[in-house]
Design goal:
Keywords: Carbohydrate metabolism, Isomerase, Manganese, Metal-binding. By secondary structure, the chain is α+β, with helices and mostly antiparallel strands. The chain has helices at about 5-20, 30-35, 40-45; strands at about 50-55, 65-75, 85-90, 95-100, 105-120, 135-140, 145, 150-155, 160, 165-185, 190-195. The chain has a single domain (about 5-20, about 30-195), classed as Jelly Rolls, CATH 2.60.120.10. Strands 1, 2, 3, 4, 5, 6, 7, 8, 9, 10 and 11 form an eleven-stranded antiparallel sheet that branches. A hairpin with a 2-residue loop joins strand 6 (about 135-140) and strand 7 (about 145).
Protein backbone atom coordinates (compact mmCIF):
# COMPACT_ATOMS: atom_id res chain seq x y z
CA UNK A 1 0.00 0.00 0.00
CA UNK A 2 1.02 3.58 -0.48
CA UNK A 3 1.52 5.55 2.70
CA UNK A 4 -0.97 8.09 1.33
CA UNK A 5 -3.63 5.33 1.20
CA UNK A 6 -2.87 4.35 4.79
CA UNK A 7 -3.07 7.98 5.93
CA UNK A 8 -6.39 8.44 4.12
CA UNK A 9 -7.82 5.25 5.66
CA UNK A 10 -6.84 6.33 9.18
CA UNK A 11 -8.35 9.79 8.65
CA UNK A 12 -11.58 8.22 7.39
CA UNK A 13 -11.64 5.83 10.33
CA UNK A 14 -10.91 8.61 12.81
CA UNK A 15 -13.87 10.57 11.38
CA UNK A 16 -16.15 7.51 11.57
CA UNK A 17 -15.21 6.97 15.21
CA UNK A 18 -15.91 10.62 15.99
CA UNK A 19 -19.32 10.50 14.26
CA UNK A 20 -20.31 7.67 16.59
CA UNK A 21 -19.15 9.54 19.67
CA UNK A 22 -16.48 7.03 20.74
CA UNK A 23 -13.75 8.59 22.88
CA UNK A 24 -10.28 7.36 21.91
CA UNK A 25 -7.21 6.99 24.15
CA UNK A 26 -4.56 9.69 23.97
CA UNK A 27 -2.08 7.58 22.01
CA UNK A 28 -4.52 7.34 19.10
CA UNK A 29 -3.48 10.88 18.18
CA UNK A 30 0.26 10.33 18.61
CA UNK A 31 2.52 11.40 15.78
CA UNK A 32 5.90 9.85 15.04
CA UNK A 33 7.41 12.63 17.16
CA UNK A 34 5.18 11.68 20.10
CA UNK A 35 6.33 8.08 19.88
CA UNK A 36 9.95 9.23 19.82
CA UNK A 37 9.35 11.45 22.85
CA UNK A 38 7.84 8.58 24.89
CA UNK A 39 9.93 5.55 23.86
CA UNK A 40 9.15 3.38 26.89
CA UNK A 41 5.39 3.76 26.52
CA UNK A 42 5.62 3.44 22.73
CA UNK A 43 7.53 0.19 23.14
CA UNK A 44 4.96 -1.11 25.64
CA UNK A 45 2.15 -0.44 23.15
CA UNK A 46 3.97 -1.93 20.17
CA UNK A 47 4.92 -5.10 22.05
CA UNK A 48 1.20 -5.66 22.66
CA UNK A 49 0.21 -4.75 19.09
CA UNK A 50 -1.84 -1.79 20.34
CA UNK A 51 -2.57 1.07 17.95
CA UNK A 52 -3.47 1.68 14.31
CA UNK A 53 -3.43 -1.12 11.74
CA UNK A 54 -4.26 -0.83 8.03
CA UNK A 55 -3.89 -3.63 5.50
CA UNK A 56 -4.88 -4.53 1.96
CA UNK A 57 -3.80 -8.16 2.54
CA UNK A 58 -1.31 -7.77 -0.30
CA UNK A 59 -4.20 -7.42 -2.76
CA UNK A 60 -3.29 -3.95 -3.99
CA UNK A 61 -6.85 -2.59 -3.87
CA UNK A 62 -7.74 -1.47 -0.35
CA UNK A 63 -11.32 -0.48 -1.24
CA UNK A 64 -12.05 -3.97 -2.56
CA UNK A 65 -10.07 -6.03 -0.06
CA UNK A 66 -8.75 -4.37 3.04
CA UNK A 67 -9.35 -3.45 6.65
CA UNK A 68 -8.58 -0.58 9.03
CA UNK A 69 -8.31 -1.39 12.74
CA UNK A 70 -7.39 0.20 16.03
CA UNK A 71 -6.37 -2.07 18.90
CA UNK A 72 -7.25 -0.42 22.21
CA UNK A 73 -6.02 -3.11 24.60
CA UNK A 74 -4.22 -6.43 24.39
CA UNK A 75 -1.95 -8.58 26.51
CA UNK A 76 1.06 -10.87 26.32
CA UNK A 77 1.63 -14.21 28.00
CA UNK A 78 2.24 -13.80 31.72
CA UNK A 79 0.36 -13.67 35.04
CA UNK A 80 0.28 -9.85 35.15
CA UNK A 81 -0.83 -9.48 31.53
CA UNK A 82 -4.38 -9.00 30.28
CA UNK A 83 -5.82 -12.23 28.82
CA UNK A 84 -8.24 -10.25 26.62
CA UNK A 85 -8.16 -7.80 23.72
CA UNK A 86 -10.39 -5.05 22.33
CA UNK A 87 -10.33 -3.61 18.82
CA UNK A 88 -12.25 -1.22 16.63
CA UNK A 89 -12.72 -1.92 12.92
CA UNK A 90 -13.88 0.11 9.93
CA UNK A 91 -15.43 -2.09 7.24
CA UNK A 92 -16.23 -0.36 3.96
CA UNK A 93 -19.10 -1.08 1.60
CA UNK A 94 -18.22 -4.23 -0.38
CA UNK A 95 -14.76 -4.16 1.23
CA UNK A 96 -13.83 -7.75 1.97
CA UNK A 97 -11.71 -9.09 4.77
CA UNK A 98 -10.81 -12.44 3.18
CA UNK A 99 -11.42 -15.87 4.66
CA UNK A 100 -9.26 -16.53 7.70
CA UNK A 101 -9.36 -18.55 10.91
CA UNK A 102 -7.83 -18.33 14.38
CA UNK A 103 -6.53 -21.30 16.36
CA UNK A 104 -6.37 -19.56 19.72
CA UNK A 105 -8.59 -16.50 19.61
CA UNK A 106 -12.31 -16.72 20.34
CA UNK A 107 -13.90 -13.43 19.36
CA UNK A 108 -17.14 -11.49 19.37
CA UNK A 109 -17.71 -9.15 16.43
CA UNK A 110 -20.09 -6.35 17.43
CA UNK A 111 -21.72 -3.85 15.08
CA UNK A 112 -21.62 -0.49 16.86
CA UNK A 113 -23.07 1.64 14.08
CA UNK A 114 -23.21 2.49 10.40
CA UNK A 115 -24.26 -0.04 7.79
CA UNK A 116 -24.84 -3.78 7.79
CA UNK A 117 -21.98 -6.19 8.48
CA UNK A 118 -22.11 -9.38 6.41
CA UNK A 119 -20.28 -12.39 7.88
CA UNK A 120 -19.87 -15.62 5.93
CA UNK A 121 -18.30 -18.94 6.96
CA UNK A 122 -17.00 -21.83 4.89
CA UNK A 123 -16.25 -25.44 5.80
CA UNK A 124 -13.07 -25.31 3.71
CA UNK A 125 -9.67 -24.77 5.23
CA UNK A 126 -10.59 -25.17 8.89
CA UNK A 127 -7.71 -25.28 11.38
CA UNK A 128 -7.51 -27.32 14.56
CA UNK A 129 -8.34 -25.01 17.49
CA UNK A 130 -5.95 -24.77 20.42
CA UNK A 131 -8.91 -25.08 22.81
CA UNK A 132 -12.17 -27.00 22.48
CA UNK A 133 -13.82 -28.64 19.48
CA UNK A 134 -14.37 -27.17 16.03
CA UNK A 135 -18.01 -26.04 15.84
CA UNK A 136 -20.26 -25.90 12.77
CA UNK A 137 -22.48 -23.18 14.22
CA UNK A 138 -22.16 -19.61 15.47
CA UNK A 139 -23.98 -17.58 18.12
CA UNK A 140 -25.75 -14.29 17.43
CA UNK A 141 -26.61 -12.66 20.74
CA UNK A 142 -27.44 -15.98 22.39
CA UNK A 143 -29.21 -17.53 19.40
CA UNK A 144 -27.51 -20.55 17.85
CA UNK A 145 -27.39 -20.24 14.04
CA UNK A 146 -26.01 -22.50 11.28
CA UNK A 147 -22.55 -21.28 10.38
CA UNK A 148 -22.49 -21.86 6.65
CA UNK A 149 -24.57 -19.00 5.36
CA UNK A 150 -24.29 -15.22 5.12
CA UNK A 151 -25.26 -13.52 8.37
CA UNK A 152 -26.31 -9.86 8.11
CA UNK A 153 -25.77 -7.98 11.36
CA UNK A 154 -27.40 -4.64 12.07
CA UNK A 155 -26.11 -2.05 14.59
CA UNK A 156 -26.33 -3.48 18.09
CA UNK A 157 -26.00 -7.11 17.01
CA UNK A 158 -22.98 -9.32 17.61
CA UNK A 159 -21.74 -12.70 16.45
CA UNK A 160 -19.34 -15.09 18.17
CA UNK A 161 -16.77 -16.47 15.72
CA UNK A 162 -15.83 -20.09 16.54
CA UNK A 163 -12.14 -20.92 16.79
CA UNK A 164 -10.70 -22.67 13.76
CA UNK A 165 -13.55 -21.81 11.37
CA UNK A 166 -12.79 -19.86 8.21
CA UNK A 167 -14.80 -16.62 7.98
CA UNK A 168 -14.88 -13.44 5.94
CA UNK A 169 -16.84 -10.20 6.20
CA UNK A 170 -17.77 -7.04 4.31
CA UNK A 171 -20.08 -4.03 4.65
CA UNK A 172 -23.38 -3.15 3.03
CA UNK A 173 -25.22 0.17 2.77
CA UNK A 174 -22.66 2.37 4.53
CA UNK A 175 -19.25 1.97 6.21
CA UNK A 176 -19.66 -0.15 9.32
CA UNK A 177 -18.26 0.76 12.74
CA UNK A 178 -17.34 -2.55 14.35
CA UNK A 179 -15.91 -3.60 17.70
CA UNK A 180 -14.11 -6.83 18.49
CA UNK A 181 -13.63 -8.33 21.94
CA UNK A 182 -11.60 -11.49 22.23
CA UNK A 183 -8.96 -13.42 24.02
CA UNK A 184 -5.57 -11.78 23.71
CA UNK A 185 -4.59 -11.43 20.10
CA UNK A 186 -1.40 -12.12 18.17
CA UNK A 187 -1.80 -11.03 14.57
CA UNK A 188 1.66 -12.31 13.68
CA UNK A 189 0.91 -15.96 14.49
CA UNK A 190 -2.86 -16.55 14.78
CA UNK A 191 -4.24 -15.73 11.32
CA UNK A 192 -4.65 -18.66 8.94
CA UNK A 193 -5.85 -17.51 5.53
CA UNK A 194 -7.74 -19.71 3.12
CA UNK A 195 -5.93 -18.05 0.21
CA UNK A 196 -2.27 -17.21 0.00
CA UNK A 197 -2.65 -13.62 1.21
CA UNK A 198 -0.63 -11.67 3.74
CA UNK A 199 -1.78 -10.09 6.99
CA UNK A 200 0.51 -7.06 6.66
CA UNK A 201 1.09 -4.83 3.65
CA UNK A 202 4.37 -3.63 2.23
CA UNK A 203 4.36 0.16 2.36
CA UNK A 204 5.40 2.51 -0.43
CA UNK A 205 6.50 5.72 1.26
CA UNK A 206 4.99 8.38 -1.00
CA UNK A 207 4.32 10.80 1.89
CA UNK A 208 5.06 11.13 5.59
CA UNK A 209 2.97 9.01 8.00
CA UNK A 210 0.07 10.84 9.64
CA UNK A 211 -0.08 8.15 12.35
CA UNK A 212 2.31 5.26 12.83
CA UNK A 213 0.97 1.72 12.61
CA UNK A 214 1.42 -0.41 15.72
CA UNK A 215 4.24 -2.42 14.11
CA UNK A 216 6.13 0.82 13.38
CA UNK A 217 6.36 1.84 17.04
CA UNK A 218 9.34 1.39 19.33
CA UNK A 219 9.14 -2.39 19.84
Amino acid sequence: MKRSEINAAIRDFDALIARHGFAMPDFAAWTAEDHAASPERSRWLAERQIGWDVTDFGHGDFAARGLALFCIRNGLDGPEERPYAEKLLMVGVDQETPYHAHKHKLEDIIVRGGGTLCVEFTDEGSVEPDEGPLFDHAMIDGARVPAFQVHRLEPGQSITIPRGLQHRFWGEGAPVFVAEVSQRNDDRTDNFFLEGVGRFSEIEEDEAPWRLLWNEGSA
